[in-house]
Automatic annotation (TrEMBL):
It comes from the Eukaryota. GO terms for molecular function: ATP binding; protein serine/threonine kinase activity. This is Protein kinase domain-containing protein. InterPro entries: Kinase-like_dom_sf (IPR011009), Prot_kinase_dom (IPR000719), Ser/Thr_kinase_AS (IPR008271). Coiled coil: none annotated. Residues 60-326 form the Protein kinase domain. Pfam families: Pkinase.
Length: 471
């Protein structure tokens, strides 16, 4: 080392120092990865629990039954020893096993530290009929009780989407899939929807394992790959199914109803129409998606991708939070609009049509000769040629008068233009001379005589030979 220059020795020492720092960094990363892996493994490892037996009435006073289903009951109860109000979820022992109950309680308890997942207390017991565990109480019920027939405001839907995507994203990072996302499983803790929480983890499963079809979820919420599964057939559980159900929940919050009855393009016309639009086979936006802005339509096209591998993640909705979602230019549907507004719109439309017709008829782009031709031509007076005996002279006279009043020929056009019928052929020279003489006399007297002369001329024209032609 004595023969090595000092500046080279410094570089070697610095290199050695950098190498040690990188080695320590890799060691720290590996340690953290192993710690996260151990945490995930602990989360997925369902422990063996002893469930004590007791009666609900021993410590709780049941205030009311919040909800009741085939598998469980939800009670609002008062805990006498602590003086607190809690919710007891009681699952029928005949319809579930102890292992399934422990799994639901375990997942709910381990995930409840997330702010948008329902808190679960370390309280569990069994009675003669139920397996019971305690949860926190949601004072404003679930989303199903808060979403009306016309949906919610856009601002409220954005709050719900942000919080729900956070809860589901947290579960997906932990390798869990909820599998039963619907309005009844989203609880409301604030009237402005600034605080909601996800609940009911009875069907929550580790991602990537084989599962059976969940019969608890509504058919309209099932993604197509799950809907197509035959009874008793198993399939791989994936987080993309949560993304699909998340999109359905978001749509219902915005509109008030589901976009289709089932994701079956053969049996459901609404879903088939959206699939054509989603696959860009047509540029026509489905009718039930026309209230959304192009930006939100893009989000729905990604969320409702038929291919589960290409489907957007729940966290991708955050990219669209700053964009406008609802298009206010689109009017409401006929089912939600009243008759008065429809009548007013129709009247306005009729007035616009009248304005356009009047504007078109008032244009003076053609001269007096063409006006006279238009007035006296047989095709302009009657829809089809007819024999002389079939011509309605009163209707012809009325049309001539209407034309004269609307165009005011006696003030804007010369008499030569009115009576110049030289566009008839030579075989009609007598009729032409007669009509010209009568027209001049009528012009000198009154406008009434002019109208009668033109009527006579039109009648003579209808009786002329079929060989006459127009220039």
């Amino acid at each position: 080392m004595r023969n090595i220059p000092k500046h080279i020795a410094m570089k070697l020492s610095e290199s050695k120092s950098d190498t040690s720092i990188i080695a320590n960094l890799y060691k720290s990363i590996n340690h953290n990865y192993r710690r996260l892996s151990n945490t995930s493994s602990l989360l997925h490892r369902i422990p063996d629990m002893e469930i004590p037996s007791m009666n609900i009435a021993d410590e709780y006073d049941i205030e009311k039954t919040i909800a009741e289903g085939c598998f469980a009951k939800i009670f609002l109860a008062h805990h006498r020893p602590t003086g607190t109000t809690v919710v007891l979820k009681a699952i029928h022992t005949e319809l579930t096993t102890l292992k399934e109950f422990v799994k639901e309680f375990h997942y709910n308890y381990q995930l409840s530290h997330h702010p948008n997942i329902l808190s679960c207390y370390q309280v569990k017991f069994q009675t003669n009929e139920y397996y019971v565990y305690a949860q926190e109480h949601a004072p404003f019920g679930d989303l199903a009780a808060n979403v009306g027939a016309n949906g919610l405001q856009e601002s409220s839907c954005k709050k719900i989407a942000e919080q729900l995507s956070s809860a589901l994203g947290f579960m997906h990072l932990k390798g869990l899939v909820h599998r039963d996302l619907k309005l009844e499983n989203i609880l409301v803790f604030a009237p402005d929807f600034s605080r909601i929480k996800l609940c009911d983890f009875g069907t929550t499963t580790r991602e990537g394992i084989l599962v059976n079809k969940n019969n608890k979820t509504w058919i309209s919420f099932l993604p197509p790959e799950v809907l197509e599964v035959v009874k008793n057939e198993r399939f791989i559980c994936k987080s993309s199914s949560d993304s699909w159900q998340f999109g359905i929940v978001l749509y219902v919050c915005l509109i008030g109803s589901t976009p289709w009855k089932s994701a079956d393009w053969v049996r459901d016309g609404k879903y088939a129409a959206f699939m054509k639009y989603q696959k860009r086979e047509t540029t026509k936006i489905p009718e039930n998606f026309r209230r959304f802005t192009p930006r939100l339509l893009r989000a729905f096209r990604r969320i409702f991708d038929h291919n589960e591998e290409d489907r957007a993640k729940v966290s991708d909705i955050m990219k669209y939070m700053k964009n406008k979602w609802m298009d206010n230019k689109i009017t409401t549907s006929k089912s939600t609009s009243n008759i008065a507004s429809n009548t007013q719109q129709q009247a306005s439309s009729d007035q616009d049509s009248i304005k356009y017709i009047n504007h078109r008829e008032s244009r003076n782009s053609f001269d007096g000769r063409l006006r006279a031709r238009r007035m006296t031509s047989f095709g302009g007076l009657t829809p089809e040629p007819a024999p002389v005996s079939g011509v309605d002279q009163d209707s012809i006279r009325n049309k001539v008068w209407e034309w004269l009043e609307s165009n005011d020929l006696n003030r804007h056009d010369s008499m030569d233009d009115v009576v110049d019928f030289s566009f008839w052929n030579k075989s009609e020279s007598k009729s032409y001379q007669y009509s010209k003489r009568e027209s001049i006399i009528g012009a000198c007297s009154t406008t009434t005589t002019t109208a009668m002369t033109l009527t006579t001329t039109a009648r003579d024209t209808s009786s002329a030979s079929s060989g006459h032609r127009y220039k």
